[in-house]
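Example record

The entry below shows one chain as it appears in the dataset: sequence first, then structure tokens.
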Amino acid sequence: MGQPTSDAARRHFGLPGEHGAIRQHEQTVPASSPRAADEPDEKWHHRASASALYGDKGEFLILPPLSGGSEIGWVAVTDPVGEHLPSRIAAVTGSPEFLAVSMDGHHLCAASAEEDDYWVVQHEFSDAQSDTVSCCGSAGAGSEVTAVV
């Protein structure tokens, strides 16, 4: 907990290197753990809340976790359930992997399955870095697409 993000995680999630990074955290959960089904959910929601991922109305941006999701770009969503998001995504896609970013683009929280572990990564971007996150997507800067997950 509180460890610097590994180089492999940086490459996987497209995070910048140590220079320009304000803070980043990585937590792993062994897939063989008796709580492997629940622990990634708990850790993701803890990290998302601690990092100010959610806006005033519970909104955040998500890169659709499906084939072609990066072509769709960032989508504004709210999560009315408020728990078990990695598990709910895995139930639909077969994998708990996804990227979520705060509406201002300053806070990222991601979940991934890597070999024998589940990873939860939290990262904070500087103002210059967040511009590339908050305006990405085929809808274009300033466009708003809203969905409920």
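Notes for this example: Residues 39-50 form the longest helix (12 residues). DSSP finds five helices and seven strands in the chain.
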